[in-house]
Amino acid sequence: MPEIAIGALIGNGTVLLARRNSQRRTHPDRWSLPGGHVEDGEDAETAMRRELLEEIGVTPQHWQLAAKFRSEGPPEASATFHVYIVDRWHGVPRLVDDEHTSLRWFTAAEIECETELALPQLSKILANLASQGSKD
Fold it and tell me: Would you state the pLDDT for residue 75?
């Protein structure tokens, strides 16, 4: 089963989400976290760092594993997701490739109301992260 590493950039009580390109095979035109497949020889942390650089042009400086879950759905689309909180990074998030069409910072309340999340499991995880981030 594929393993996917994704990174949640958090700051000022918000989480950065990326809208997936409408041409994507899975979850087209849905909000998700930047990230991607763990490649052979990589661990999930290495994959998350590589993917954030490739997709949104940032280099994570400080992170921790927030959650790990298996997606539900058709067997060909199921995967194990490693969700990392990234609270320090170098660079300004921007669209680098065509995997995503926009980036936006969401508050916990906005995440809880967002019906276009790619993975329903992310809703609770991200709302908790955003609300934690606002306590600093």
Answer: 67
